[in-house]
Structure formats: structure tokens, C-alpha cells
Amino acid sequence: MPRARFPTTGNLATVFSEMPASVRRYLVTGLNVLAKLDTSKVASLIPLALSTYTADVPSDREFDRLAKEFGINRNQVPEFLGAINLITSVLSERPESAEDFVKEAKNAGLVGEENLQNVKQFAELAIANRDIIKKQIDQEEVASEVLPTFTYFETTIDVRLTFSEEGRIERTMPVALVHIDRPSV
Fold first, then answer.
1. Is residue 122 located within the same domain as residue 35?
2. Residue 175 covered by a domain
3. Residue 26 near residue 82 (C-beta atoms within 8 A)
4. Residue 173 belongs to domain spanning
5. pLDDT tens digit string along 92-120?
6. Do 162 and 86 share a structural domain?
7. pTM for the full predicted model
8. What average pLDDT score do residues 149-154 get?
């Protein structure tokens, strides 16, 4: 899932008002899909949201599976994933409560009064899992960082053997040895 990050400084009203129009349209559609989910499925969304930080762009087969699993239109799956990704991302970095998030989302026209229950329930779950979400985001950011320049990189695979008293090979264990040399900083 491609990651879309935008500044989340200031109050939530500012964050929502400064959101790019294309992200806003995407989020409105995703929040409306979330709002219409069977309420019993909302609890299973945190692991799905976490997967949006590490997974590649889902395949057509994955989109079909998610559409079936959540009872939504297949064409709405990207917006749905984007909305849960954005909610978890924003709430992992900010101190607001679920009530504050829902109130500001409603005031910004991102979600209607009739669609607040699931959005609030998911926001509460995101806040309850804030540390896990933050750790996942941090891990993804480290994995995405540019690596230093290497001047030399070599790997070797050794096979370690354990022998029985009769001299037969009892166990084997492959061991990777890596030598990395980089310019001094």
C-alpha cells in the first residue's frame, strides 16, 4: 500500500483543512465505507491497518478478498485502506481522543452525523493500540531509509555439521557470514 504522509501539526481542524483535495476525496470515500461496515468487523481492522504500513500495493486478488471479507464494493477497497491507514497514522502521532477526532472529521465534512459510530469505534481502537501502531510506523520508516554507501560487501554461507558417535552427520546448520566495509564518516 503506498504511503501518503502530509503534515499533521496544529489542531485537527487545521490538519483537515490543509489536506490536499485529492487526499480529502479519498478519505471521505474511505470513511463512508468504514461507516457502513458491519460493526462486528471493525475490531479486526487494526491488524489490517498495520499491514498497510509494510505491505506492497495489494494485488487484484487481495482487493477481491478484502471486498468479500468486509462486504464492500471492490472499487472502494483502496479508499477504505487509505482511510484506516490515515486514521491510525494521524492518531498515533497526536494526543486527541476518539471523540475529538470524530468531532473534527464531522466539522470538516469528512463524515456525516449518521456515519459516526464505526469511525469513532475504529478511532478508539487506534488510540488503544497507539504504541503498536507507532512502533510499526517507525519500523517501516527505518526500512525505507536510504542505506549508507558501501565500499565492500561480501557474503559467505558456511554449513556447520554435528556428527554422531558413529561418525554420521546428525545435524546441519547453514550460517551466513557477512562482511561490510563502508567509508569512514
1. yes
2. yes
3. yes
4. 152-181
5. 888 889 999 999 999 999 988 888 888 99
6. no
7. 0.69
8. 74
